[in-house]
Amino acid sequence: MIADEYGIIILAAGNSSRLGEPKQLLPFRGKSLIRHICGSALEVAGDQVIVVTGSNAQLIERELEGLPCRFAFNPDWQEGMSASIKTGIHVLQSFNPQVKGCILAVSDQPFVSAGIFNALIQSFETEGKPIVASQYSGSLGTPAFFAASYFPALLQLTGAEGAKKLFNRYANDVSSYPFPQGSIDIDTREDYKRLISGS
């Protein structure tokens, strides 16, 4: 565990309209997706883990009851990913102004692990690049690490903009870590059926 130095922000504010139910609560290998990723994050960052909620805030908080994560409600979750990123960073900085950086993660990648989180941080510490993105399917994505010096740029995102905009804007400051299974996420009922049938 890398106590106090880094945070992990889990973006879980969406309403999963294409599934008809909160995808964060879908079961996979004995745990809900949100409980799995939150547990993995807690192994790495302890009480520096923030779960950003929105549409299904009460259900998610109930699902994670007993885990020492912090919750941040995003009242503007319908505006897009940027609002949740801003909410998470504001909360992280409010209780840890000296934080060195954070990982942004989404709640529907079933194969995210503590090992992936640790690898992103270690890449930052050894290679010195202030942004470290997961690499899969020929592109960069989440989970992704951002040094605190890039928090202002994250806070300037608007609407549906997410971390990928910064990967493109600051390409020379980005390194990557291979995470082939990062391409597997849950956006539709068919995605979930494929995941379960292959597990």
Short description:
The protein has 199 residues and is of the alpha/beta class. Helix content is 36%, strand content 23%.
- Roughly how much helix do the residues carry, as a percent range? 25-40%
Q: CATH superfamily name?
A: Spore Coat Polysaccharide Biosynthesis Protein SpsA, Chain A
Name of the level-1 CATH class: Alpha Beta
CATH architecture identity: Alpha-Beta Complex
Q: What Rg is obtained from the alpha carbons, in whole angstroms?
A: 15 Å
Supply the number of helical segments. 7
C-alpha geometry: globular
What is the strand tally?
9
Task: Supply the key terms.
199 residues; alpha/beta; Spore Coat Polysaccharide Biosynthesis Protein SpsA, Chain A; seven-stranded mixed β-sheet; two-stranded antiparallel ribbon; 9 strands; 23% strand; globular
Walk me through this protein's architecture:
It is a single chain. The chain is α/β, with parallel strands linked by helices and 199 residues long. It has a single domain, classed as Spore Coat Polysaccharide Biosynthesis Protein SpsA, Chain A. The protein is 36% helix and 23% strand. It contains seven helices and nine strands. A seven-stranded mixed β-sheet has the order 5-4-1-6-8-7-9, with helices on both faces.
